[in-house]
Design goal:
Blueprint (H helix, E strand, L loop, with lengths): L3 H29 L11 H5 L13 E2 L4 E2 L6 E4 L4 E3 L15 E3 L2 H6 L3 E2 L7 E3 L2 E5 L3 H13 L2 E4 L2 E3 L22 E2 L2 E6 L15 E7 L14 E10 L2 E9 L10 E7 L2 E7 L7 H9 L2 E4 L1
Parallel strand pairs: 4-6
Antiparallel strand pairs: 1-2, 3-4, 3-5, 7-8, 8-10, 9-18, 11-12, 12-13, 13-17, 14-15, 15-16, 16-17
């Protein structure tokens, strides 16, 4: 039996011989290669780690038993034919049985992928991320009745935010207008629309959009919750030929309008206001559009 030291010496000898053989092999390769260059070494990193797979922009629509919807984090539904996408509050989206090709989080993301935002339906407007649709014809009759009852000029809206499907149409007899039955609140005209379709991630539809009218010499009392004890961020503008102001309504007496952006203007003895529950200037164009499209009815 060989001893431990002899075994080590034997293995050392074999290792030395192997090393010499390898060295000789590499020498032969160097001589055989052009200009004595060694062959390229293998790229171990390319074979030892997985390659990154490019991710496809957007998200896959959710299949709810043959009814498709886009997830809240990617609410824009894009379709291949034609190559367009729909915001979630669009008044006339495709049936939910048609599967979107992809869902996107932002307009920019959809645009980069070659999709274009679908235009609003004929007769509708798209302002500040909100679709404005023609007001129900019956609203004009309610406005006219209120103008005669109050003996003042009423700014009757002709365009309003798109209501949710299945909800009652905006009128002077439902929703927030229970505080002003027939759009009458004390000696003021008050119309409000709640539960309308707002842009994704927005909370403005949880509180009403208001259209208000009163005699300038007799504003709504603070106890009615429709006054503005304090005004912030006053910005001048105009409605038609009338000077107007944008301001943020604040104060304990502003129960319904506290935190609202208000557009106010006057004509003769009357003051008119359009308000939305947001202090963001992004909705100023929306209020201007509604104000410029009102129909004035005199009692």
């Amino acid at each position: 039996m060989r001893g431990f030291g002899e075994l080590i010496n034997t293995r050392a000898g074999r290792a030395g011989a192997t090393a010499l053989a390898v060295a000789a092999g590499w020498g032969a390769l160097r001589l055989a290669s052009p200009r004595g260059a060694l062959p390229p070494e293998p790229n171990l990193s390319a074979t030892s780690s997985p390659q990154a797979v490019p991710t496809r922009p957007g998200q896959t629509p959710i299949d709810n038993g043959g009814h498709y919807l886009c997830p809240p984090v990617a609410p824009l539904a894009a379709y291949v034919t034609p190559r367009r996408y729909y915001p979630p509050n669009h008044p006339a989206p495709p049936p939910d049985t048609i599967r979107p090709a992809r869902c996107f989080a932002t307009n920019v993301e959809a645009d980069v992928q070659g999709y274009a935002q679908v235009p609003p339906p004929a007769g509708d407007l798209y302002v500040g991320g909100i679709y404005l649709v023609p007001a129900p014809p019956a609203l004009a009759g309610s406005c006219d009745a209120a103008a005669h009852d109050l003996r003042l000029t009423v700014p009757c809206p002709t365009v309003l935010p798109e209501p949710f499907s299945g909800d009652p149409l905006p009128s002077c007899g439902n929703g927030i207008n229970t505080i002003a039955l027939g759009c009458l609140a004390d000696h003021a005209f008050v119309f409000g629309e709640a539960n309308f379709k707002a842009p994704a991630g927005s909370s403005i539809s949880s509180d009403p959009l208001f259209v208000i009218a009163f005699r300038t010499s007799r504003p709504p009392p603070l106890e009615a919750g429709l006054g503005c004890p304090a005004r912030e961020t006053i910005v001048p503008d105009s409605v038609g030929s009338s000077p107007a102001l944008f301001f943020i309504c604040r104060g304990r007496g502003a129960f319904y309008l506290d935190g609202d952006t208000v557009l106010a203007w006057t004509q003769g003895a009357f003051t008119f206001e359009v308000a939305i529950h947001s202090d963001s200037p992004l909705y100023q164009p929306l209020l201007l559009e509604i104000a410029n499209d009102v129909r004035y009815l005199t009692g």
